Amino acid sequence: MAYKQNKSNKERFIDLDMNFDKHPITKDVVRKFDGEAIKRSLKNLIFTSKYDRLFQPQINSRIRRLLFENVTPITASMIKSNLKDLIIQFEPRVNLIDIQVIAYPDQNAFQCTIIFRIVNQTETITLTTALERLR
Question: Are 97 and 76 in contact (CB under 8 A)?
C-alpha cells in the first residue's frame, strides 16, 4: 500500500495489481488506485487466515472456516460480524457503511456486499464477492 499526494493535495491510495499484469507502455506492473486498491485490499483481508501473513498472525478472517458450516442465516450473520470486525481493525482507510451477507443454500455459497467510503471522500463504493468453499 502506498500513499501519494496529487496536485489537488488529495491523498491517493496506490497498490499493485495482484495479477501482476504488465503495463503495455511502461512494461511495469499495473497499479490500482484509490477505490480499486482498497477493494483489492479488502478481498485480501477476507481470505487471509491466521499465519498467512508473516509476522502478522493477528490477521485472522475465519471466513474459510465458516464456509464449511451449514449455509444458514446464522452462518451468514457470523460471517457479517467477522467481516465487520476485520475491516474496522485492519483497514483504516475505510469508513464502513454496511455489510450484507446473503446465504444461498442450494449453491452452498454466500454473497457478500460491502458498502464503504474512503476516508475523507464522499463517494460510496460497493464491493460484491461470492464466498464459497473450494473443497
Answer: no
| Cβ contact 100:133 at 8 Å | no
DSSP H or E stretch at residue 94: strand 94-104
Sign of the Cα pseudo-torsion (113, 117, 44, 48, in order): negative
Residues 6+ apart with CB under 8 A from 17: 29, 30, 31, 32, 40
Residues 6 or more apart in contact with residue 23 via CB below 8 angstroms: 29, 30
Chain segment 103-123, per-residue pLDDT in tens = 999 999 999 999 999 888 889
pTM, entire model: 0.78
What letter represents residue 27's amino acid? K
Is the pLDDT reported for residue 95 higher than 90?
yes
CA distance 47 to 57: 14
Query: Hey, which CATH number is domain 2-132, 3.30.2290.10, 3.10.450.40, 3.40.50.300, 3.40.190.170?
Result: 3.10.450.40
